[in-house]
Design a protein that fits this description.
By secondary structure, the chain is mainly alpha-helical. It has 3 domains: about 1-130, Rossmann fold (3-Layer(aba) Sandwich), CATH 3.40.50; about 130-170 and about 205-290, Serine Threonine Protein Phosphatase 5, Tetratricopeptide repeat (Alpha Horseshoe); about 300-465, DNA Cyclobutane Dipyrimidine Photolyase, subunit A, domain 3 (Orthogonal Bundle), CATH 1.10.579.10. Helices cover about 50% and strands about 5% of the residues. The protein has 21 helices and 5 strands. Strands 3-2-1-4-5 form a 5-stranded parallel beta sheet, with helices on both faces. The longest helix has 19 residues, at about 50-65. The structure holds flavin-adenine dinucleotide (FAD). The site of flavin-adenine dinucleotide (FAD) has 28 residues, from α10, α12, α15 and α17.
Length: about 475
């Protein structure tokens, strides 16, 4: 038997691992595998910071597995085709009866798994990435919901009725069980670049960050989560994106702390659970509509839109040189840290697609190439929501005003000042759109606005109509 880790880099609440352990003799050293497929990862636009984050978690996983008498072999394979070839040969040479893994949702990953099965790799798959099994929450016609709120209601009903499984952590073996003299050695760790060092490993987050967030921050999450200068959100997206933390564990712990949460949808704490349900919604969309992995608009009405796509405007957006301070500060946060606050993701995505009339796919790709939490389902869902091409999306005539957004969600310009030090000395009132003030004071330390908000809004309405 062989255990194959993919987008589930954890031992905590890992269904494939739990099954594997049930089947194995604890006294025999077992083998697990993880493929480093940099060429494939780059083809999927994974960022350098995400790759570093994965490698650090793979190194930690190897240590945790050793305590379960499992040796993790890290194999370098360029792409999915090479992974299949490796598995075919390995299974043949070692007469492997089962290769155990957790499913992934994306199209190429699914195709790889299908090819494995077709070519005789005895793959047995479980599901580790969602709380409620994908495909279980359907509307009366047996289809996936197209609107979030009824999906959420049905999701809650489902969880109240059937619960969800949570497997906990496997028990590490004792020294006696491990047979110290014979115990396997840790493989050579993967070399990490250090790019993701600001993010602690999942084990530390489970121990300190999550309990603290549940205890101190969720009650005010709804009130504060839209203000990028405040650290009011959980910061868990990178861990969920690579499967280093289980969403079922998050809910299990949440229910322990707030036992009525599933029926308390008007409580302040529910707002955070709502986000985990959005995550499930988007994962189900990709699961049901595989075209979303292939850059298709959710709404077919938009398939053949001819976006003007100015490369110069796109470049200015990427570099944070639009002349709209909130947009520029947000893009600098992304470029400097590999993460961006949710409110700002909505603002910059709206700005790119509506003010600059650039195809949402350009923004989606750029985000994937920069984000530590790059995740096809959430990223695609977010971009298509902002571009109004998606499922339960923003109506096309809603165009975020980047100045108004700045005044509302960064009223004192604290966030802007952090990422645009050139504007640090400006009065609060002027910082959201400083051009008149700068001209009056003969200051030239900021970019001119690349588009005029009012004109761009009218052009967007016209274009979308
Ligand atoms: C244009 C755009 C692109 C995005 N790209 C990604 C992406 O690549 N990866 C990603 O994980 N999220 C993405 N999001 C969703 C959201 O911005 C991040 O999940 C969130 O900012 C992460 O911060 P947090 O962990 O502190 O979240 P919290 O506010 O603490 O929320 C808890 C968890 O819920 C999930 N979640 C929260 N908001 C959303 C949402 N709108 N959609 C789906 N899941 C959500 C995340 O897993 C998050 O960790 C995107 C949103 C937009 C508008």
């Amino acid at each position: 038997m062989l255990l194959w880790f993919r987008n589930d880099i954890r031992i905590h609440d890992n269904p494939a691992l739990a099954y594997f352990l049930e089947q194995q003799q604890a006294s025999e050293t077992a083998k697990a595998i993880f493929f480093v497929s940099e060429k494939q990862w780059l083809a999927h636009d994974w960022s350098a910071i995400k790759i570093d984050f994965i490698k650090r978690h793979v190194n930690a996983l190897a240590e945790q597995l050793l305590a379960l008498n499992i040796v993790l072999e890290v194999v370098h394979c360029d792409d999915f085709a090479a992974q299949i070839e490796y598995l075919k040969n390995y299974c043949h040479q070692h007469s492997v009866s089962e290769v155990v893994a957790n499913k992934e949702i994306e199209f190429n990953e699914n195709q790889r798994d299908k090819s494995c099965l077709e070519q005789g790799v005895p793959l047995r798959m479980f599901e580790s990435d969602v709380i409620v099994k994908k495909g279980s929450v359907l509307n009366k016609s047996g289809e996936m919901y197209k609107v979030f709120t009824p999906y959420k209601r049905a999701w809650l009903t489902y969880v109240k009725q059937y619960g969800f499984s949570y497997l906990g952590k496997p028990r590490p073996l004792t020294e006696k069980e491990l047979n110290v003299n014979n115990s396997p050695k840790l493989p050579k760790p993967l070399t990490c670049s250090g790019a993701s060092d600001a993010w602690p490993l999942a084990a530390e987050v489970e121990q300190h960050v999550i309990p603290q967030f549940y205890q101190e921050k969720v009650a005010s999450y709804g009130e504060k989560r839209d203000f990028p200068a405040i650290k009011a959100t959980s910061g868990l997206s990178p861990y969920l994106a690579i499967g280093a933390i289980s969403p079922r564990y998050l809910l299990q712990l949440y229910i322990q702390r707030f036992p009525d949460i599933l029926v308390a949808s008007d409580s302040p704490e529910f707002t955070w659970l709502n986000e985990l349900i959005w995550r499930e919604f988007y994962r189900n969309l990709v699961f049901h509509q595989q075209d979303l992995s292939k850059h298709k608009c959710f709404n077919p009405k938009y398939h053949n839109v001819k976006w003007p796509n100015s490369p110069e405007l796109f470049q200015a957006w990427c570099e944070g040189k639009t002349g709209y301070p909130l947009v520029d500060a947000a893009m600098r946060q992304l470029n400097q840290t590999g993460w961006m606050h949710n409110r700002l993701r909505m603002v910059v995505a709206s700005f790119l697609t509506k003010h600059l009339l650039i195809d949402w796919r350009w923004g989606e790709k750029y985000f994937m190439q920069q984000l530590i939490d790059g995740d096809l389902a959430a990223n695609n869902g977010g971009w298509q929501w902002a571009a109004s091409t998606g499922c339960d999306a923003q109506p096309y005539f809603r165009v975020f005003n980047p100045i108004r957004q700045s005044e509302r969600f960064d009223p004192k310009g604290e966030f802007i000042r952090k990422y645009l030090p050139e504007l640090a000395e400006l009065p609060d009132k002027e910082i959201h759109f400083p051009h008149i003030y700068l001209a009056k004071n003969n200051l030239k330390n900021y970019w001119p606005a690349i588009v005029d908000h009012k004109q761009a809004r009218l052009a967007a309405l016209d274009f979308y109509r």
